[in-house]
Amino acid sequence: xxxxxxxxxxxxxxxxxxxxxxxxxxxxxxxxxxxxxxxxxxxxxxxxxxxxxxxxxxxxxxxxxxxxxxxxxxxxxxxxxxxxxxxxxxxxxxxxxxxxxxxxxxxxxxxxxxxxxxxxxxxxxxxxxxxxxxxxxxxxxxxxxxxxxxxxxxxxxxxxxxxxxxxxxxxxxxxxxxxxxxxxxxxxxxxxxxxxxxxxxxxxxxxxxxxxxxxxxxxxxxxxxxxxxxxxxxxxxxxxxxxxxxxxxxxxxxxxxxxxxxxxxxxxxxxxxxxxxxxxxxxxxxxxxxxxxxxxxxxxxxxxxxxxxxxxxxxxxxxxxxxxxxxxxxxxxxxxxxxxxxxxxxxxxxxxxxxxxxxxxxxxxxxx
Length: 368
Hints:
By secondary structure, the protein is α/β, with parallel strands linked by helices. It has helices at residues 21-30, 43-57, 70-81, 106-121, 135-150, 180-191, 202-214, 231-241, 253-258, 261-269, 299-306, 317-330, 355-367, and strands at 12-14, 37-39, 62-66, 90-95, 125-129, 154-159, 196-198, 221-223, 247-252, 274-280, 283-284, 290-291, 310-314, 334-339.
């Protein structure tokens, strides 16, 4: 189905999702990053932006997200936007990952089972868009929802895999030299048998394949396959508890932005056995490449202000190797921002072990 049903709206904010890639590309092609379209740090952030837009204009905003982001909207929807509070109308467009009966990755299975229930429990009326849904059906649904929106309620289109279409081409790129998989390969060589906590998305997939290629096994790695933005907090508590081990966190710019308060938490606790590597390509590359604001901010300076003792930004492999070697010997809380290009191998696989197997092996290694 084409995206003509969105033409009557003029403000969009969201967090990119691969299931909504046609929508994301449509918005980038038509609006780019502008007053009409803001890519937010997280889905709760989207709700706040949508509220501001409605307060300023009286119009209805559109918020897009993967269903994994529903947890981030529960508080602002229930305590700010609900019609018993400020009555902020909003149209949500939600990618339906883990839809029952459709094969998906482990982190999406339970989320898919409860997606519709969670939305309806928040008094958000839902309509599921599939490949067979017509534009007339969507238009009729929007017309039926108008009284709800007029009364300050929220509604949601839940989008099945392959349901949306957009023929336009959008290219996401930057001029950085380094490649994420090779950056992780350099980290693995330096970290040795140290534990690594890796972030959501392709970074964890690449770490898994590097271990496979090296015949190293996977017990040294905790792959944060879901829960975007929380890897550094997982790694922090491990570092605080296992003071005899050097803990590495391989993070991404989108994940860092999603819950940036974790930087302050790490800095305030300041474990000297923690090395935090932010692989920054300025993009939500795992879900299609839409930009983040990370290329416009000074991540090392923010980390330094939060209490990190050693911070540096690197843009070449030589700089990276020097920074990794210093971090390994420094015995102080360190952040390395590694600027990298957008892209990954077309044949990049997925972990062949289950999350439970990953957890058990990692816990056994930590107890050694």
